[in-house]
Design brief:
The complex is a heterodimer of chains A (386) and B (267). In chain A, a hairpin with a 2-residue loop joins strand 2 and strand 3. Chain A is built from 17 helices and four strands. Chain A has two domains: 262 residues, no CATH class; 39 residues, no CATH class. Helix content of chain A is 69%, strand content 2%. Chain B is α/β, with parallel strands linked by helices. Chain B has a single domain, classed as 3-Layer(aba) Sandwich (Rossmann fold), CATH 3.40.50.300. In chain B, 42% of the residues lie in helices and 22% in strands. The longest helix of chain B is centred in the N-terminal third of the chain and has 21 residues. Chain B has eleven helices and ten strands. Classes of the chains: A mainly alpha (386), B alpha/beta (267). At the A-B interface, helix 9, helix 10, helix 11 and helix 17 of A face helix 3, helix 4 and helix 5 of B.
Chain lengths: 386, 267
């Protein structure tokens, strides 16, 4: 059943995307391990940078799954990303062991600093990787389930839903800032040493983490593709287009929203968990509402309602951000980001990829024009008509 | 004193009496009232639809036609009154999805189809069968389902446009697609809200023929403004006014009813 489900997702474009991701995931780390004099040598910082972008791309994909396909505009997805990151961070903290500044074999440094005598109960188990791996998807999934259960059952939609997702991530931001929450407060979790026994700073470990990020993105893409290709995916689009109609033909819309929201939160959690070891720190700043909004901008720029769009959008905007903020124009970046969002909304409502796809489709099949209009076109037409 | 006593004793007794009366009907509304912010959209509305019956409902704007459909399909909960389906199913306790699964299909006033889906997918989504999220995730369209979709596409004359996006259909074609989606649900009762609004005369006549065809096997309730269309349907007519039934009978009979004339022609 599962194989048939995945198998259905495999069309030509999917093969291309998967192939590209895996090629990049294998080639770049290998090139980074070559001698610096080798002409195709890739410096380690590039691996760290692009590895980070791949995690962002997975976050963007998860936002697109709920927003582009089901019409749920979540402005709190960074919360799920950060929770996955914290779960990984807790594992990495326990791996430090007695090598911390205070040399306490059990307690992380910040707990010793706060004069705590024993590990809080919610830190139990995080010395095992398998436990952390479960928590990376379970914690964001559970939060999404509880949040979605109440929000979707109460039929909170549109801008109201966006506002409460934003409130959710802000509440978590404030909570994680508190020292007595037990997550390192303001400073968060950092000074990581090992992951699965390997030195987290070593180029080879970085290469593997990079590959893992590319693999996670490819897996996320494949899962999204399979979901969209199924009848479930058709129902999601139906909910996006005409929610009450979907109810009147007998679909319990809240159930669909809940399933896709939880799935999306889990994907965001995985993205966060791969982000943290590559960046070397997780702190409450990751819960900042602005981060969630930025993720939405990546999706809008790339093209919502396409699966390649959010990946391209996340890469493009973040390359832009790195380039921009490393020059003397750094302080204007937020203005540029804002202008970009406005410009895309006004001039490229389908995003970069959406526009290109529509153009590519329109040309060869101009004889059967009506069928060639892309779904997102129709959505836009519907939105304009409404 | 007695009045208060009567009210207290009423619910249980009334429900029993209602159920008795409801037994042989497909749809049974008794004493249904709904108000929004003090405005009474329905005042003690009572209506009985027999199995296999087609009924036209007419009435001026604000008569409560759409609210009545909302109550039957579970979108609005009545403040008081009973709504029973197929004899003994209490619709006031159910949500839209379970009422739809029970066999009540609804067509909206404004054609509401899934614009970014193809005509084929629109019918596929409406097709009776799997409804749960996990069931649809692993569902594969069977040959029997494919045949059924083709059959419905033929009935609504959109077979040659099955790959079209619904957004690209004309207004009349969207109305027909929505009727096709209703058929695909295989309901026992169809609620059709102004099916010919915005249609040409020819389309209107074809729609009347289509609905008469459907009514051979299913119960149909049609809400309509267009009198010539109601005449084409040639069925029993219920006139609503200010949230309750003003008159009931053949179109000729209600047209001759002085109270109806007063409402329609003004006083």
């Amino acid at each position: 059943m599962i194989t048939a489900f995945i198998f259905r997702a495999l069309d030509r474009n999917t093969y291309i995307v998967l192939g590209l991701l895996l090629a990049v995931g294998i080639l770049l780390p290998l090139l980074s391990l070559t001698d610096p004099s080798f002409p195709l040598h890739v410096p380690t910082y590039v691996i760290a940078l692009i590895g980070k972008y791949l995690c962002y791309a997975l976050l963007a994909l998860s936002v697109d799954l709920v927003w582009g396909y089901c019409g749920i505009l979540s402005l709190g997805h960074a919360a799920f990303f950060a929770l996955g990151g914290y779960a990984m961070g807790m594992y990495l903290m326990r791996q430090i062991g007695a090598r911390g500044v205070y040399a306490n074999p059990v307690l992380p440094d910040f707990m010793v600093f706060l004069n705590w005598n024993e590990l809080p109960w919610f830190w139990y188990g995080f010395d095992h990787f398998w436990f952390a791996a479960i928590m990376i998807v379970a914690v964001p999934g559970l939060l999404a389930f509880i949040f979605g259960w109440f929000a979707f059952r109460s039929r909170v939609t549109g801008v109201y839903l966006s506002i409460i997702t934003q409130a959710m991530t802000y509440a978590l931001l404030l909570a994680f800032f508190r020292n007595d929450m037990g997550f390192g407060g303001n400073n968060g979790l950092t000074d990581f040493k090992d992951i699965l026994g390997f030195n987290i700073q070593a180029p080879a470990t970085r290469g593997v983490l990079f590959f893992a990020s590319a693999l996670a993105l490819a897996a996320g893409f494949l899962i999204c593709r399979a979901v969209i290709a199924s009848k479930f995916g058709k129902v999601l689009i139906a909910v996006r287009d005409a929610e009450s109609r979907t109810r009147f033909i007998g679909y319990r819309v809240e159930g669909y929203k809940l399933v896709v929201f939880v799935l999306s939160a889990m994907m965001a959690g995985v993205a966060g968990s791969l982000y943290v070891p590559q960046i070397g720190i997780i702190n409450p700043g990751e819960f900042a509402p602005a981060n969630s909004i930025e993720a939405v901008i990546w999706v809008a720029v790339g093209g919502r309602g396409t699966l390649i769009g959010p990946i391209v959008g996340a890469l493009l905007v973040n390359f832009g951000k790195t380039w921009f903020t490393s020059g003397m124009l750094a302080e204007y970046w937020l203005f540029v980001l804002g202008a970009l969002f406005v410009a895309v909304t006004l001039f490229l409502p389908k995003g970069v990829v959406g526009t290109l796809l529509a153009r590519a489709k329109a040309r060869p099949t101009s004889t059967s024009a009506p069928a060639a209009v892309s779904p997102i076109d129709a959505t836009i037409a519907a939105e304009e008509g409404a | 004193m007695t009045a208060i006593h009567d009210q207290a004793a009423a619910p249980a007794e009334r429900v029993r009496a209602s159920r008795e009366k409801a037994k042989n009907s497909l749809l049974y509304l008794d004493g249904v009232s709904v108000s929004f912010d003090g405005f009474k959209a329905l005042r003690s509305l009572s209506l009985v639809i027999e199995p296999g019956e087609m009924r036209a409902i007419i009435g001026p704007n604000g008569a409560g036609k759409t609210t009545m459909m909302d109550v039957i399909t579970g979108k609005t909960k009545p403040d008081e009154g009973d709504v029973f389906f197929a004899g003994d199913t209490d619709l006031t306790r159910m949500d839209e999805a379970s009422i739809a699964s029970l066999g009540i299909g609804r067509k909206f006033q404004k054609p509401t189809v899934f614009e970014s889906h193809t005509v084929w997918n629109n019918i596929d989504l409406a097709l009776a069968g799997v409804r749960g999220p996990f069931a649809t995730l692993f569902h594969r369209t069977s040959l029997r389902e494919t045949a059924r979709i083709e059959e419905i596409l033929d009935v609504i004359r959109l077979a040659d446009k099955k790959e079209w996006l619904a957004a690209n259909l004309s207004h009349g074609q969207k109305q027909w697609l929505e009727i096709g989606m209703l058929l695909a649900q295989e309901p026992q009762l169809l609620l059709v809200d102004e099916p010919v609004a915005g249609m040409t005369d020819a389309e209107t006549r074809e729609t009347a023929a289509l609905l008469r065809e459907i009514a051979k096997t299913k119960s149909v309730v049609v809400v309509e403004h267009d009198m010539s269309f109601v005449r084409d349907l040639d069925v029993k007519v219920t006139v609503l006014h200010q949230g309750s039934v003003l008159s009931e009978g053949t179109l000729d009979a209600v047209s001759a009813d002085p109270t109806v004339i007063e409402v329609y022609l003004g006083r």
